[in-house]
Amino acid sequence: MTGSPPPLAFLTTYDAIPGEAVRLSPLVQRVLCPNPGPFTFTGTNTYVLGDREVVVVDPGPADEGHVDAIVRAVAGRPVVAIVLTHTHADHSPAAALLQARTGAPTYGFGPHPEPALPPMEPPDPDRPDTTHEGADRDFRPDLLLADGATVTVEGWHLDVVHTPGHIANHLCYSVREEATLLTGDHVMGWSTSVISPRDGDLADFLASCERILDRGEGTYLSAHGEVMRDPHAYVRSLVDHRHHRTRQVLEVLADGPGDVGSIVALLYPGLDDRLVRAAKATITSHLLLLQRQGQAVADGLPSFTTVWALADR
Question: The pTM is what?
Answer without folding.
Answer: 0.95
